[in-house]
Design a protein that fits this description.
The structure is a homodimer of 247-residue chains. Chain A is built from 6 helices and 9 strands; from the N terminus they run H-H-H-E-E-E-H-E-E-H-E-H-E-E-E. Chain A is of the alpha+beta class and 247 residues long. The first copy, chain A, has a 6-stranded antiparallel sheet. The first copy, chain A, has a two-stranded antiparallel ribbon with strand order 1-2. Chains A and B meet through strand 6 and strand 9 of A and strand 6 and strand 9 of B. The structure holds a DNA duplex (19 and 19 nucleotides). Chains A, B: Pfam families: GntR, UTRA.
Chain lengths: 247, 247
DNA sequence: CAGTGGTCTAGACCACCTG
DNA sequence: AGGTGGTCTAGACCACTGG
């Protein structure tokens, strides 16, 4: 394989399809192919890297199973944009009065630019001096608050959001991040825990103090694996359900 | 591909590697290769089914990613036995007084042979007349009850357990199922919810009535996908944590 | 050493999509 | 019709395991 084709020198001890996979990831992270755009065809990649199409397919297979790419027969191979809209439905089941699933609307209650706690600073790999944007918002269904969210963003990447009028924040933040700040969420890690509602959370969510609350901590990262959003979401435990398959 | 090689007639509209995959699953389900025993080599399978080794590899790839098989270079391809021992650690973090992770011991409190509820009967695909074995047991760490479990088994498959002395039940039931009843767990589905402790659960777990409790409902199935164990596990929510990666 | 799975090639033909 | 990914072949050689 022609080493000169690679963005950075690959580790020759790895199989070619792994080296190829890594190079494709770095090209995607560099923005060479935008989300939902087709990447080079398998034949082109095989020629470019001087490997057979079978090897190209194996590299792409890995990225498809990682959720980075999707293939469509006859059309091409595409950079996948994760569908985080529905990510809450992974944990919470929200239905309107008539039983239809609904996506909650959002309202930002507070925004401040402050030094983050040490926990959040480390999770976001921020320098000690760097400030963060802190958003507090609620999510509502038919006027009723169902979720309470705390969001932390490194100021350096999200400067625009430090001054954006609060009423211009949308229900979904990730499209906003992409449009205004050129930040695309590629993956996330979530941790679930159960708490008993504090007086403050209870009054926000309209539940009794001490009743169970699900807390989802999420760290979202870009295609290069660098974390850039820290978020905690709290909701009443009775709207919660999660399903896992084990093998 | 030689159709006569197949246990049941495969669907010719499917790719060969899919047909092959399905036939391997049915041979595993039929017990042709025991758990932790090597299956036929790739070359043998290619000859037997009259396909190339690349196609055999693709079929095996699918089963490996399904968790049914594992491959070891130089040794062979093996039927995988899921490690359910640690399945509780997926949700609950148990540590002993000195901070080491521990596996709780178990004690069966009650056993009865009764007609199951409609919910459980349907989940286990049992006939209306069939009876079930119901076990109530607790799991303990250093003498303290940390989990409370209700287990339902179809009597037909688990007759031996209807009369086994209660003190001969072991901490882990799945090895017992396999040894005494020839039932091997191949996969399971688990659903998590949060409840507030009833007085009974609270006294079992040594927590306050109304404090949050995690409930894990599990349906375990054999290699053929037939469910044969229904189980619910309750534990205090403060021992709970779960982590997910999203892409 | 022989036997296993792991990597890789250089094609072929098929199924699907778009213009 | 031309281009894409999907399936499949019939090998080759390598890396690892065990006797």
């Amino acid at each position: 394989m022609n080493t000169a084709s690679f963005a950075s020198k690959p580790d020759d001890r790895l199989p070619r399809y792994q080296q190829l996979r890594d190079d494709l990831v770095s090209r995607i992270a560099a923005g060479e192919w935008a989300p939902e755009k087709a990447i080079a065809t398998e034949a082109e990649l095989g020629q470019f890297y001087n490997v057979s199409t079978g090897t190209v397919r194996k590299a792409i297979d890995l990225l498809v199973s990682d959720g980075v790419l999707t293939r469509t027969q006859g059309k091409g191979t595409f950079v996948r944009r994760p569908r985080f809209d529905s990510s809450l439905f992974r944990f919470f089941r929200f239905v309107s009065r008539d039983g239809q699933p609904v996506r909650p609307t959002a309202r930002v209650l507070k925004r401040e630019v402050v030094k983050p706690s040490e926990e959040i600073r480390i999770a976001l790999q921020m320098k000690a001096s760097e400030k963060a944007i802190h958003l507090s918002r609620v999510r509502l269904i038919e006027g009723r608050t169902v979720l309470s969210e705390e969001i932390w963003l490194p100021r350096a990447r999200f400067d625009v959001l430090a001054t954006l009028p609060l009423d211009q924040f949308e229900d979904l933040l990730y499209p906003l991040y992409e449009r205004l700040c050129k930040q695309v969420v590629a993956s996330a890690t979530e941790i679930l825990r159960v708490e008993q509602a504090t007086a403050e959370t209870a009054s926000l969510l309209g539940i009794k103090t001490g009743s169970p609350v699900i807390v989802v901590h999420r760290v979202a990262s870009d295609f290069a694996g660098a974390p850039f959003e820290w978020r905690s979401t709290r909701g009443a435990a009775d709207t919660f359900q999660y399903q896992v398959e084990i093998r």
